[in-house]
Amino acid sequence: MEADARLQQMLQGYDTFSSDFEQFSVTDNGQRTEATNGTLVLRKPNLFRWTSEEPFPQVIVNDGTYLWIYDPDLMQVTRKPFDANGNSAPALILNGQIDRLGEDFTITLVNESGSEALFELLPRNEQSTFTRIRLLFVEEQIGQLMLEDSLGQRTTIQFHNQQQNPTLGADLFSFDVPDGADLIVDPGA
């Protein structure tokens, strides 16, 4: 089975997904940044809520029309139009949109042994935001997502307590601007 078909198979097994996560970055000189913890819930296609807790609290919600970014420390909300065609690579991955992903990246199955599978995605275009993406699956569930940018910074997201197809209320994918928060409307490109 080709790598893109195998990745598609692993990502199509759910319509909803939830997970706890730990996110950290490593700079090009090997320095690790402080870890951020939080939760992710998503409903295909394109609905998600990403909630980061300490040390950098943030809520990002895609309601299918707008992308909302709320920074509680700043009491600031940014709203920008959601563009399904302009999805970022991580969003395409979590939504299982491998056909779209395959247009922008060469997908390789680096290693598959036992209950683990490691995929690597390399950009077809030098203008890509990411120079390399690695996905580690454990028992056919995404366990880790590593993104490397053109400046050599690697961001790693480790998933824990993953659930495929949990029941998720529609309210998770809506956002109301908190009282007292400033709203910045980004009209998009």
TrEMBL record:
Residues in coiled coil:
none
Q: Which Gene3D superfamilies match?
A: Lipoprotein localisation LolA/LolB/LppX (2.50.20.10)
Q: Which SUPFAM superfamilies match?
A: Prokaryotic lipoproteins and lipoprotein localization factors
Q: Biological process (GO) annotations?
A: lipoprotein localization to outer membrane; lipoprotein transport
Localization, per the record, is: Periplasm
Q: What is its main location?
A: periplasm
Q: Can you quote a single GO CC term?
A: periplasmic space
Q: Which UniProt keywords apply?
A: Chaperone, Lipoprotein, Periplasm, Protein transport, Signal, Transport
Q: Per its UniProt record, what Pfam families does this chain match?
A: LolA (PF03548)
Purpose of the protein = Participates in the translocation of lipoproteins from the inner membrane to the outer membrane. Only forms a complex with a lipoprotein if the residue after the N-terminal Cys is not an aspartate (The Asp acts as a targeting signal to indicate that the lipoprotein should stay in the inner membrane).
The record's comment on protein family reads: Belongs to the LolA family.
Q: How does it assemble?
A: Monomer.
Name listed for the protein in its UniProt record? Outer-membrane lipoprotein carrier protein
Q: What organism does this protein naturally occur in?
A: Marinobacterium aestuarii
Gene symbol here is lolA
